[in-house]
Amino acid sequence: MLAVVALGALALGAALVWFLTVNGRKGPGGADTDLLARLYVLMEQETAAARTEAAHQRTHLAEMERVMTGRIEQVRTELAERLAGMAGSMGREQAEVRAAQAEALREMAEASARQLSAIRVAVTDQLHEAVERQMQTSFQRVLEQFSAMQTAMGEVRAMTAQISDLKRLFGNVKTRGGWGEAQLKAILDDVLPEGSYDSNVRLGPGNDVVEFAIRMPVRASTPPVLPVDSKFPTEAYERLLNAVDEGDAAAEKAARKSLESTLRLEARKIATKYIHPPRTVEFAVLYLPTDGLYAEAARIPGLIDEIGRTCRVMIMGPALMPALLRTVHLGYVTLALEERTETIARLLGATRQEMIRMDSVLEKLARNAQAMSTSIEEARRRTRVVSRRLRELDAPETEEMALNPEMEFTGPDTENTASGQS
């Protein structure tokens, strides 16, 4: 502030000097020169006062700066002392906290160790008990499985004996054929109606007997039959299965060839012995008792089609035979429906004849009724004439009535003609 006042005074002094210089150039002037001199003196005084005030202010500011510096040093000293005290107290507190934490951690470690020991002991006991129970259970299960295995081994031995018996059973050709024949008979009894087939029938001139002859559902006094014979080539089939199990391609090929030759031979025998039209149909059936045997026969390329084409023999298995028999059964159902239809047709024909006769009787009855109606109408007409005649008896008789009394009674001919036409 003092610097500003001093600068202002200097500026004002410079302006006065410039003004005096300018006025001095214009000419002497006593009043103006005195005024300016007084102003200049005033300015000098003001400048001196301002300088004095500035010096005083500067001294005051220096004193204040000294006082402030002292106070700041005091405050710094106090702050340093307080910070030192706080640092010491914090160090002591941190040491105490560290000691407390170390003690707490030690106690926690000891407690954890004790708990882990207790848990280890408990787990060990439980594991020991569980292992003992598991071992007992496993041992009991092993004993049960061993008992079951012994039982199964006994069953296997019994099954082996049964298989041996079955092999011996199927080793005999006649026994083998009897088993296939029994199976085929069960299928026939299950599908076909009763009395639709015969067993052990002689079809040809020789002594050859076919196992089953199915009567076909046709209209004939002696319907043709379908020969069905079962074959079970066990040897070739077993050789084929053994070769497949062993993975021997050459043996499998030879066994399949042997099976093919056996089936062709049996088909030719059936065609020669049992197909004799018109006693039989144009084909026969070779029945294989197992689906596995039929599947192996079907796997031989072209075997079934060729046998059917050349020998007129169809090869059937247990899965296909019921379908053929159901077709035959459907034929029986159709034949029964045709017979029932003919019976109904005959009944309708007889009914038609009876209706024709009834129509004749009704026609006669209508004619009689018409004649009776005519007679009744004539009687009514005669009654009306008699009534009119009786009414006329009360009136005076005229001359015409006296001359011809019967004309009035019989009535005119026009009425009689009309009644006759009606």
UniProtKB/TrEMBL annotation:
Residues 394-422 are annotated as: Disordered. The keyword Coiled coil applies. Belongs to the RmuC family. It holds the Pfam family RmuC. Involved in DNA recombination. This is DNA recombination protein RmuC homolog. Keywords: Coiled coil, DNA recombination. It comes from the Bacteria. Residues 413-422 have a biased composition (Polar residues). The keyword Coiled coil applies. GO terms for biological process: DNA recombination.
